[in-house]
Write the structure tokens for this entry.
Amino acid sequence: MFDPTPAMAGWFGYPLELDDRLRLIKGAGFESVLLWWAVESAYEPSIPKKVETAHKHGLMVENAHLQFANMNSLWLDGAEGEHYCEELMGLVAEAGVYGVPTLVVHLTRTSEPPASNELGFSRFMRLVEVAERANVDLAFENLKVVSRLYEMMARSDSSRVGVCFDAGHNHYVCPGTRICRDFAPRIKAVHLHDNRGNKDEHLIPYDGNEDWANVAKELIDSAYTGAWSLEIEHPLTDKFGKALLPREEDPYFGMGPEEYLARAFAAHRRLVEEAGALL
């Protein structure tokens, strides 16, 4: 029976402690979680505590999203980029220690990152070397500069290197490019969220204008067999405390976290059921 595991991002926009967020995610029916893999910060405990909290609530850890705030420094010569690369290498190694099978990785940040260069790719290949030793997969995500993803994938044939197919990014950044189709044998993670084609809104599926039937077909036709993971955010705030939308543009304004997660789980079930009908 076709029934991919329902997974949910551990951060979904509500400024709650991780324990409360994961308890609510489990209560809504989700079975797996995507963790934020970074140094300790507001609303985010230490890495050991993250994994312990997921297991406490009976949630599998589908994957974790590697921090990316300073990713552009990896493409620039100097101590800052070198220090950040070493910090990321440590986080990749920790994923292996705590049994996280896959890390989602950004290659750049912003729409105008530094130009592609050998120094940057050499630093990412150092992350790959650590991942191979730690038995962790690295899933590189499709972002605004989508050409960088194609370059990275052409440079590494490591079995630990693959793609995180972000359906929402594909819809508004590069709708003419089909990431899931182009990298069908190498999809290692998925991020499912919606938008209206003009910005990165991280809406619940079916609340934007994404072609979900096409997304479902591409996932079914790929080699990916993991969880179908929602990476949605109520636009109260992002992980850095920034409000994502003014109230008048917030489709979930006034909605509590329980109602929001119930809506998300219903959308996930609808997507799975409609995908199953395509088989």
Q: What stands out?
A: The two ends are 10 Å apart (CA to CA). The mean pLDDT is 94. The longest helix spans residues 257-276.
